[in-house]
Design a protein that fits this description.
Helix content is 19%, strand content 31%. It contains six helices and 13 strands. The strands form three sheets. It has a seven-stranded mixed β-sheet with strand order 5-13-10-6-9-8-7, with helices on one face. A hairpin with a 2-residue loop joins strand 8 and strand 9. The longest helix has 23 residues. The protein is globular.
Length: 303
């Protein structure tokens, strides 16, 4: 049977490509957003920390006893290494002259999106980097991240442990025992599943606060414990392996991002028939008191 001309056989139809770009990129960087900043003047960045431990026993003195010297503590020098991150961009002349949908100038588009990518790389390093690597001529420098700094209150739970309200309150208790009550962690950084579990805790109150005061774009879940209020952040970069999922308790004002160079765009000399450039930053992480933060590993991925 003949049907004349239908769209299935029309080779002259123009494509129907919307000039709209769907973007659901997971580009949240809460740590980079919330942490204060400082300046690093060298690739080795140093600062001083101080902590006075409470006594576990006391020895009194005799009436009329002679004066006796005692050993005095000194502040501790802490250091980190600056880390260089880049995001390169290269777009051919032909691509820039082509009629592309949604992006406008492909080079300008890639430049704009490259900064988002660089910030996500920085966020990952800030949270997940282990111990610093000093580097050499042929060895890359790495800064210590939050995961590498936290050693005093680093607890390995039995593999696959469920994250309960008792677990969270035990974390608060561990921190309260060794720091000033006003310096107990005020952020919980965890996976989305564990945030869901916390949202369902009934023994104490969970609530939401307006995020505008915290420089974020979404309202923030808060858990109120006997040790204070703790904002709960589901973070995509938290270690989330079977039986070893990690939960962090972070004291926000005890961390800073120190910039040797804040992110900037570096034009690369033209070679061949392409335009090139890269986003560059050099930074490190300051831990002003790692004892005020903690981590626990070993939790089940399901929360």
């Amino acid at each position: 049977m003949a049907y004349g001309l239908q769209t299935y056989y029309d080779t002259g139809r123009r494509e129907d490509l919307l000039d709209v770009l769907g973007d659901v990129s997971p580009d949240e960087t809460p740590l980079l957003t919330l942490f204060a900043t400082s300046t690093a003047a060298n690739t080795v960045h140093e600062w001083m920390t101080w902590n006075v431990s409470r006594p576990t026993s006391v020895t009194a003195v005799l009436e009329g006893a002679d004066y006796a010297d005692a050993d005095l503590s000194q502040p501790t020098r802490v250091s980190n290494i600056t880390e260089i991150l880049t995001h390169p961009i290269r777009v051919s002349r032909t691509e820039r002259k082509s009629n592309v949908a949604a992006m406008g100038d492909p080079f300008a588009f890639q430049k704009s999106e490259g900064l988002r990518s660089l910030k996500m790389k920085m966020e990952y390093s800030i949270l997940n980097n282990g111990t610093k690597v000093s580097g050499a001529t042929s060895a890359i420098r790495y800064a210590t991240g939050i995961d590498g700094f936290i050693t005093t209150l680093a607890t390995a739970r039995a593999s696959g442990t469920s994250f309960s309200e008792t677990e969270l309150n035990d974390m608060v208790s561990d921190a309260w025992n060794i720091v000033d009550p006003d310096k107990v962690f005020d952020m919980v950084v965890c996976t989305f599943k564990i945030k869901q579990a916390i949202a369902g805790f009934s023994g104490n109150s969970t609530r939401y606060i307006d995020a505008t005061e915290r420089r974020l774009v979404k309202d923030v879940l808060v858990y109120d414990s006997a040790g204070g209020s703790h904002r709960i952040f589901a973070h995509k970069d938290v270690r989330n392996n079977a039986g070893s999922t990690t939960v962090y308790g972070i004291r926000e004002d005890m961390w800073k991002v120190a910039y040797f160079d804040k992110p900037f765009f570096q034009e690369i000399a033209k070679v061949g028939d392409s335009d090139r450039g890269q986003w560059v930053t050099e930074f490190t992480l300051e831990s002003l008191a790692e004892k005020a933060s903690l981590k626990r590993t070993g939790y089940a991925q399901t929360g």
